[in-house]
Amino acid sequence: MDLPELRVQVANYLDKPQLAAASVVCRSWNESFIPALYSEIQWCHEVNAPKKDTLLKYGKHARILFINDGFHELSVEAFTKLEALRVRTFKINNEMWEQLSNLLIQNQGLVEISISIEHSEEPITLPADTMRHIMSYPSLRNLDLRSFNFDIGSTEQLLDACLHLQQLSLLSTGLAQLHSLERWEQFPVMRSLSLSHSNNLTLQQQLRLIKKCPQLRSLSWSRDSGETFSVPDFCKALSDDCVLIDNLKLEGWSLSDECIGKIIDSSTRLTSILLPCSNFGMNAFKSCSRYLSTLTRLDVHICPNFTSAMSQQILTSCPLLRDFDACTLDARDILGITEERQATGEGGTESLQTRSTTTREWVCLNLRSLSVFICGLDGRYPARQQQVLQQLARLEKLEYLSIGTDNSSDFESIGGLVLRLDAGLDILKSLKRLEKFVFLGLCPEMEENEVHWMLSEWTELRNLGGLLNSLDCRRIELQEILFSSGSMRSIYYRQVRLEEVPPIHN
Fold first, then answer.
1. I need a labelling partner for 238 at 20 to 30 A (CA). Which of 2, 30, 364, 441 fits?
2. Quick one: average pLDDT of 166-175?
C-alpha cells in the first residue's frame, strides 16, 4: 500500500465508510482516498448532506452529482469537473433554473444529464438558455428529461443533439409536432431510446425516429392503451432497420397475444423482454422459446394470460436470467404435482387423486430479482411449503424477493407461503444478499421471532414490504425492533381493506 497507484486501485473496491477511514490514516493516504470518497455526491439538504465548507473544499473531486429535491443551500460553485449531473425535484423556480444553468456552464465535460420534475401536474417548459446549454455539449452522450414541454425550436435542437447522443429518455415530455423528420437522415450512435405516451409526435413520426437508429440496442416505447398501433410497420422496423435491439419494453399498448408474438418473432436477438400489463399469453410465450437460453430479464406482471406453468418453465429453462417479474407460481407446478378430481360410487362422490412427476429444479441460480406470488399452499400438505422454500433457498444471489400479491380485490392472499419459523422460514437463511423483501397480503403475519431471525440472517436487508402484525400497537413495537438494528431504511405495509400507509423512513 506504499504505492499511490496501488491505493488508487484499492479505492475502487471500498465503500464510503471504508474510504473515510482510509483517508485519515496519514497525509499520503488522504491524497489517495479523498478523490474516491467525494467522486460521487448525493445532495439532499435534509438528509446526510455534506456541509458547505466540505463541498467547497472537495467538490472539485466530484464526477457525479445527484441533487434530490432542490438546490437549497447547495454551493454549486464547488463543482467544476462533473461528468454526470442528475437532478430530481418536485418543484422548480427561477432561482433554481439559474443555479442549474450555472452548473451547466461550469461543467463543459458533462457526459450525462438527467432532469426530472416529479409529480408535476403539467409539463414544464425548459428555459431557452438552459436548453441551449444542454444541447451544446459535444461530450454529452446520455440525456434523460422528464415532465417537460418542447417548442419547435427546442425539438429541433434536441434532434440535432441526437446525432451524437447514445442514450435518450423522454418520459412525460412533450415534443413539438414537426412537419417532417427528413432533415435528420440517421442518428448513428443512438443505442438506447425511451419514448412515452405524452410526447406530441405522431405514431408514424415516432416510428420513423426509431427507424433512424440503426445501432439501437434498447427500446422502451409506451403509449395510452386507446391508441392504434401498426404492428406490421413496427415488425418491419425490427426486422429491417433496428436488427440489433436486444432489450425491448412495450407498455400501454392494446396488443393481442398474437400481435405480441409477431413482434417477438420479428426480433433477432432479444435478451430482455419487458411487457407488463399486456395480453402476453401462449402465442407470445412460444415466440419467446428461442430466447430461453439467453434471456436475462422478463417482466410479465399483471399479464392474466401468463400462467403458473409458464413461470415454472422460465425458471427451469433460463440459466442466464437475472430479473423475473410475473403474476403467480403455483406450488404444484414447482413440485411437479398434478391433481385430478374423479367421481366414484353411486352418489357420484368426488375423490382427489394426486400424481407426482420428477421435480425440475430451477436453473436460474444467478437470479438477482424475483417477483411472483407463490400460491397453492392451503395447509393440507405442510411438507410442500418446505419443499418450495428449499427451491427458493437455492437462489443465493437474490437481492430483491417479492412473494406476496398486490391484488386489490382481496386483502389476504389465500394459499401463500407461511412466513413463520415453525413452518420452515429458516430454510431461507441462505439468502444472505437479500436487500428488499416484499410479502404483501400473506397471512398469518410475522411476529417478533421472525423479525429477529431476519435481522440476524439477512444482514443486508434494508427494506421490507408486508404486514408484520394486524394490531397497531404490536406493529409499532416490531417496527422499533427493525429500526433499532440501524440498517433498516423503510417499511411499508397494508392494513385491512388495502388502506394505503405511507412509507416509514428512519
1. 364
2. 88
Question: What's the angle, vertex CA 305, arms to CA 300 and CA 306, rounded to 5?
Answer: 45
Q: CA 372, CA 368: separation in Å to the nearest integer?
A: 13
Closest C-alpha among 414, 372, 421 to residue 395: 372
Lowest pLDDT segment from 69-73, 257-261, 265-269: 69-73
Half-sphere exposure (Cβ direction) of 285: Cα atoms closer than 13 Å = 18
Beta carbons of 39 and 62 less than 8 angstroms apart: yes
**Grid coordinates belonging to 393:** 433457498
- Identify whether the C-beta of residue 391 lies closer than 8 Å to the C-beta of residue 401: no
Chain centroid, CA 290 distance in Å: 25
So where are the chain's domains?
Answer: 1-37, 307-506
328-332 average pLDDT score: 93
Within 10 angstroms of residue 93's Cβ, the number of other Cβ atoms is 10
Q: How far apart are alpha carbons 245 and 238 in whole angstroms?
A: 8
Output 418 or 33, whichever has higher pLDDT. 418
Give the model's pLDDT for residue 426: 95
DSSP 240-304: II-TT--EEEEES----HHHHHHHHHH-S--SEEE-TTS---HHHHHHHGGGTTT--EEE-TT-T
Q: Give the Cα separation of 119 and 165 in Å (integer).
A: 27
- Provide CB contacts within 8 A for 11, sequence distance 6+: 19, 22, 32, 33, 35, 36
pLDDT of residue 506: 31
Query: How far is residue 422's CA from residue 426's CA, in Å, rounded to a whole number?
Result: 9
